Amino acid sequence: MHLEPEIRTATENDRDAIEQLIFVSARELSRGYYSDEQIAAALARVYGVDSTLIDDGTYFVAKTDGVLVGCGGWSKRKTLFGGDQFDGRNSELLDPAVDAARIRAFFVHPSYARRGVARTLLDRCEKDARRDGFQSLELMSTLPGVEFYLACGFKAEEPIVYDASGVSLPFVPMKKNLPERTSRTL
């Protein structure tokens, strides 16, 4: 059943609930794609809340009946993936004329997976990035997210392997051009 969750900009007050959602989502939805060791390493070294997204007002939470069912955002900064604990961060601003906006940190509660939550969040991110002048998007997908992003028009590139303190984590870089804006005349 498709949901129509309430989407709003995340605040620092959402941090604990987002962290819990990330943990549950990664543990449950990554099974069959990553080993327990890989999931634990990802949670310790890569996945997590990115305070910059919250500070920039480009991170969103999705709620249904007051329950946090998803989160995700976009960024105008160079960091492609990773929470606050990730050591590969770069907070320099992107140039919308030449750079792609980043789609970041999408997580859905397992009980609400495949019900339109991530799609609703992604639509909001695409709209906002386009409004800010970006013409394309890029992201670093987890293995469980690849099919979703392909269905949303992203193109996969060659997978990469990130070393999370001796544990190999495969990810898939993906890109998408945003449709041209059309002007309507009445």
Using the CA coordinates, give the radius of gyration.
16 Å
How far the N terminus sits from the C terminus, by CA atoms, comes to 37 Å
Structural class computed from helices and strand pairing: alpha+beta
Q: What gross morphology would you assign?
A: globular
The main β sheet shows up as: 8 strands, mixed
SSE topology string? EHHHEEEHEHEEE
Oligomer: single chain
Low-confidence stretches: none
What does the model show?
With 186 residues, this protein is an alpha+beta fold. It is 28% helix and 27% strand. It is built from five helices and eight strands; from the N terminus they run E-H-H-H-E-E-E-H-E-H-E-E-E. Strands 1, 2, 3, 4, 5, 6, 7 and 8 form an eight-stranded mixed sheet that branches. Helix 1 runs antiparallel to helix 2. The longest helix is centred in the first third of the chain and has 15 residues.
